[in-house]
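Exercise 7. Given the components listed, write out the predicted structure of the assembled complex. Treat all entries as one system.
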Amino acid sequence: MMKHNHDEILNVVRNELPPDELLCDLSDLFKIFGDTTRMKILFSLFESELCVCAIAELLGMAQPAISHQLRVLKNNKLVDCRREGKTIYYFLADDHVRSIIGQGFDHLTEERMMKNDKKI
Amino acid sequence: MMKHNHDEILNVVRNELPPDELLCDLSDLFKIFGDTTRMKILFSLFESELCVCAIAELLGMAQPAISHQLRVLKNNKLVDCRREGKTIYYFLADDHVRSIIGQGFDHLTEERMMKNDKKI
DNA sequence: TCATCATATGCACCTCCATTCATATGTATG
DNA sequence: CATACATATGAATGGAGGTGCATATGATGA
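Answer.
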């Protein structure tokens, strides 16, 4: 018997597949959202701009940990900051943040509704 | 001098912040998209359902690696599968997948347009 | 029921990264 | 210019997860 062949469909798919670099950048972007601490920071900033020590207090974490994560978020243009004396306030840089997280939220809630349906 | 106080705003933010469990689940969901291999698999399935060995061939990776990642995707309801003889075909389970990735895509391209503007 | 193909699973290794600790930078005030 | 506060940075550590290898499961056909 011969191993089954799928060259035709593979050629189609291969042509439509974006370049590796783009796919890497895209997964790198989602990697940012794939951490609880960063997700909490972003949700906090939904409400209001906040200084570093306020976020640290809110999440019950050490200040350097927050600073490291804020740097990641800033490097990826998800947040920006402004200085006011000694204090530095961080805020959301982009409305895509809200819509990306919103889509994820929808998927989660829909998934749970389906689970509940099956239970009934 | 006294350390600066931000209790008022923190109380507001704290009340609006979703429960920890939800924020964990949400970042866990985005973690799925935060891997190049899984991103490639999802993009491939945009075009057509595919069997495991076709995906492995397309990505130039070993079959068990693909199986492991397909399991992750399936456990999180992002893909589903059907059997046809010995072959198992995987396909996208949810249109949220397209819209979540689409939002990420928009953020990337917008970010790049801004970089180009600054260069000019 | 034996051999072959398609896929799944278990385990070990290795890399990546989030956090911590210590310390540096920056800013106002006295 | 010395001190205190706010934040950033660097190095080290510990844990999570992606991949490869070996092997198990499952299905088909002779």
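Discussion: Chain A touches chain B through 57 residues (CB under 8 Å). The mean pLDDT of chain A is 91.
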